[in-house]
Amino acid sequence: xxxxxxxxxxxxxxxxxxxxxxxxxxxxxxxxxxxxxxxxxxxxxxxxxxxxxxxxxxxxxxxxxxxxxxxxxxxxxxxxxxxxxxxxxxxxxxxxxxxxxxxxxxxxxxxxxxxxxxxxxxxxxxxxxxxxxxxxxxxxxxxxxxxxxxxxxxxxxxxxxxxxxxxxxxxxxxxxxxxxxxxxxxxxxxxxxxxxxxxxxxxxxxxxxxxxxxxxxxxxxxxxxxxxxxxxxxxxxxxxxxxxxxxxxxxxxxxxxxxxxxxxxxxxxxxxxxxxxxxxxxxxxxxxxxxxxxxxxxxxxxxxxxxxxxxxxxxxxxxxxxxxxxxxxxxxxxxxxxxxxxxxxxxxxxxxxxxxxxxxxxxxxxxxxxxxxxxxxxxxxxxxxxxxxxxxxxxxxxxxxxxxxxxxxxxxxxxxxxxxxxxxxxxxxxxxxxxxxxxxxxxxxxxxxxxxxxxxxxxxxxxxxxxxxxxxxxxxxxxxxxxxxxxxxxxxxxxxxxxxxxxxxxxxxxxxxxxxxxxxxxxxxxxxxxxxxxxxxxxxxxxxxxxxxxxxxxxxxxxxxxxxxxxxxxxxxxxxxxxxxxxxxxxxxxxxxxxxxxxxxxxxxxxxxxxxxxxxxxxxxxxxxxxxxx
Length: 630
Hints:
Blueprint: H1 3-24, H2 27-53, H3 60-63, E1 73-74, E2 81-83, H4 105-116, E3 119-124, H5 136-147, E4 155-160, H6 166-178, E5 183-187, H7 196-200, E6 204-207, H8 225-231, H9 242-266, H10 272-282, H11 295-301, E7 305-306, H12 311-319, E8 330-332, H13 345-351, E9 382-385, E10 390-393, H14 394-411, E11 414-419, H15 431-442, E12 450-455, H16 461-473, E13 478-482, E14 485-486, H17 489-495, E15 499-502, E16 507-508, E17 514-515, E18 518-519, H18 520-529, H19 537-561, H20 567-578, H21 590-596, E19 600-601, H22 606-613
Parallel strand pairs: 3-4, 4-5, 5-6, 6-7, 11-12, 12-13, 13-15, 14-16, 15-19
Antiparallel strand pairs: 1-9, 2-11, 3-8, 9-10, 17-18
């Protein structure tokens, strides 16, 4: 029976029913009920009608070339790095481009396991994960995953973390060390602080060319452990505050424990004294806790480091940036989402003792001018840019793509944009910027010129230095473009380029690191004008941190400038820019930069200004500066 026969039968039944009701009840009370019933039946049949005609979605043909729509449009994060896909020039502008979709996290891990014949466990921390730092929930998840690995199966651990809970890092590392088969730890971008213990536990460490480990120097209430111990050395004990003495005792114990655990993790049964010398180097406190231990540094210290990074590792890290929800921090091929609650380091830290628990001093190592601000969630839809690993608002993306493509075609280069501002995901350099920029550099042709467009107030000094080192290592010509400003960490990155091209009114800035809001050179100046027994414990400790970070920053700046400028000239430029003669927010114009000896041009095409402006007023807010039409 077809649809129209059903409707005819319903109509005849309703007519007979009406006659009976009219004779016994009257017409009007029931009329409305009958009409409502007929309308409801009609709507139900109409709703079912498309399914009888066709089971094919009208959007199926539109969706097929791009993959699932949720992989293209996500109403969440905004971008921090926008990089042009390398094959844009080979494709017509109107041709639809499918994003790189390597599969779900489980699929990527399964592929890696199949290729390597291993069991893979990943510990990944970032903004859209359940946890941003290593904590005890990660500990439970990781130990559960390790316990399920067959004893004869090689174990591959991917670590992507800024550190966190000390015991969690050490306990996970001990479990990896105890695994009887071969163990390998992969560090695609960074494993810092307590996460470094996980690397020490492996038979082999695999680091990408731009990846970094770090020294272990935990934060203990008043400062890093080594800075507390060294900072109060010249102060009479009677002048030292009680709390500082307690912190010093905790610091001494933490460092001794870290050395002992590091020796235990590195011991391969051949040379215990030798590995303990390596541990002493990594936990000595002679380096700033903000130092990046590159693969070259790690090999020189004595760690067993390789650079053979499987492509699945990069794919896995990138895939975690596309998730719509909050992902678990520990992933395996069996489980993608954690069964446990989303406890965060921030909340847990507030409930626990402030001393000796976490190694998160890096959260304080931010430039004063670039403190993060909280803005409401963006209202517009976001588009995933596959090769750059970021989300970009749809309208902004279309305009930016065209401009980036035009720049690349005109200059024959690979373009990477790092833009911070009101409509972007972040206001300053952080670990997500580091990951995105390093990812874009890894995917770039090393023989093609590199153009980096900077628009930033600065941010984490650690992040700025590591990005700058990666830019410096690019073999082809490197040019940094600064339409408006690239301050602090942005200036550090500029120093890695062969040439800096600035807008006529653009500025760079000094590169003196700010510690807890205080300029490092000014902190050291305090020691010159005041005796130690008259200075507070806090500033003595801070001065020790400032001393180490200035040494690290100067060495990095000299390395960045070397090759482009003379050896003597490069360090002279570095000394001038980090000497503390200027305030941290002082604008270094193109003329001042040229007088310092930097290779600066002001021949900046309009396209670069237009690119920055693509990302302004994306949410419909009214601008504060209003002008007439040109």
